[in-house]
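The following block was generated as part of the benchmark described in Methods. Ligand: zinc ion.
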Amino acid sequence: MSNHYEVLNVPQGASGEEIKKAYRKLARRLHPDVNSGPDAAEEFKRVTHAYEVLADPQKRRVYDTTGNENGTDTGFGGGYSGSGFAFQDIFETFFGGQSGQGGPPSRMRRGQDALINVRIDLKDAVFGTNKKIDVDTAAVCPTCDGSCCQPGTSPRTCDICRGSGQVQRAVRSILGQVMTTAPCGSCQGYGTVIPNPCHECSGDGRIRARRTLTIKVPAGVATGTRIQLSGQGEAGTAGGPQGDLYVEIRVNTDSTFLREGDDLHVTLSVPMTAASLGTAVQLDTFDGDQELAIKAGTQSGEILTLRGLGVTHLRGSGRGDLRVHLNVETPRNLDPEQEELLRKLAGLRGEEYTDGQLASSGSGVFARLRERLGNL
Ligand code: ZN
């Protein structure tokens, strides 16, 4: 069993204010109205019990000297109940409302979810990245720590409704006098009023603040993918829990690679001579230089597939492929010598093509084409 200081995560010599602050922070996270986790209720009880002891100077003195709040050394006997320091009081002190059923509603509200867009490069989508982002959201007010009250003050039970949050009014109707119940106008139905609202947050318990977060962008994300960060959204009112932050990804268009699903496509231009004779070329990919073998006789439009060099699958394992579309470049702006050589080559291959006429001779491609088209 850890001791009360450890439970509240404060040093042995902590001041009353520090202890209060530490408890408020834990209670906000663990309170059953807010946290439905399986261990939260038990944890909340322990934290509250520790606070009951340490917040009371007399009990604390006994605890500090004997290590036990009962003033005896016979184990950890003092229960959570039975203390004059009722939980309800603690809760009202901090949160300005009553807990549980039947009472007026708490000022505490869960914060809203927030959505921000983040741009990343295609390479970051392939491998994943850590991205620093600035987030403007409501944050817990550092001055009042979400209590809405000026430090040293606390909410007071509303005089008008006497803490019920509701007022009864007699209304005349055709049935005679009818009593109706309406939220108390003095405390807006909360049952308590805040006589000294915090100056920094005007009694809201939160302020606008900018934070810098580093988010982990997993490999495989695409434009429109949303990453949910629990509890990183807007702070709630009156110390209520934070909403969630959603980060929506936008992937920048890459100047070289085109993405289709988890495959990447790239076009590689190969000179006609190299495509004809065969060669090896270096291709700069996201995985570094890759050597590509261009077979002799490569045609424009042929595709070479580099397995596993595409985008990482967001779910499951492995990666898509990188598909290299080969584009054979027809030479332009020939000088006379080059033209002569090509004509000679054409002649040797029976591919002469002059003055817009199909060559009459041989079995070249144009002759074959003419055969296929028939006698038109
Ligand atoms: Zn404040």
